[in-house]
Write a structure and sequence with these properties.
Oligomer: single chain
Low-confidence stretches: none
Number of domains: 1
Mean pLDDT: 90
Radius of gyration: 15 Å
CATH class: Mainly Alpha
Largest sheet: none
CATH topology: Hypothetical protein af1432
Distance between the termini: 29 Å
Length: about 180
């Protein structure tokens, strides 16, 4: 389904039930699988998980993409980093963990909160796998969304932005009419 910001101007509700449950599960994941040695502080990962999720939903609306799936991808794209504490290659290495996590979600909670469809599954997993490749553009709008919001969220949190992140940050500013 294609979404538009116009679909939500009545301010009724943006679908969010699956995302909210997944955020709870991710916090439980952090509690159970905590590792002391980390390339980035755990507080950064938690803050980034939430803010990137919400930012991804917002930008998805401006790009005609599914906001809830964007929010899930924004929340879960750093799962490898959250579980292991290791930043290096966390996108490609994280794809398998995200597949496992979403499969477990579907089995345990899909009936109650809504299943993640195969198409949605692929969008989230591919976005996770490729989100660290910020230098290259793809034809996949969903992958580009997560690359862009991930880069922009780092800017919002006060991190130094490499030059190759800047076009992605500018794209988000343009989507939000802040350029």
């Amino acid at each position: 389904m294609t979404y538009s910001i116009k679909d939500f101007t009545s301010l009724k509700q943006i679908p969010n039930q699956r995302l909210e449950k997944i955020l709870v599960l991710l916090i439980e994941e952090i509690d159970v699988n905590y590792v002391d040695k980390r390339d980035q502080p755990l507080t950064w990962s938690i803050n980034h998980m939430y803010s990137c999720s919400h930012l991804s939903k917002l930008v998805a609306l401006t790009r005609g993409l599914e906001p809830e799936i964007a929010g899930i991808a924004g929340a879960i794209h750093d799962l490898y980093l959250i579980r292991t504490g290791i930043f290096k290659e966390h996108g490609p290495k994280g794809e398998a963990l995200v597949r496992e996590f979403l499969t477990d979600y579907n089995v345990a909670f899909g009936e109650e909160f809504g299943l993640i469809s195969e198409d949605e599954f692929e969008k989230i997993c591919l976005a996770t796998k490729f989100h660290t490749d910020k230098k290259n553009q793809s034809d996949n709008k969903f992958i580009e969304l997560i690359k862009d919001t991930d880069a922009f969220d780092r800017l919002l949190h006060g991190h130094k932005i490499p030059e190759h992140y800047q076009p992605r940050c500018k794209a988000v500013l343009k989507n939000l009419n802040l350029n």
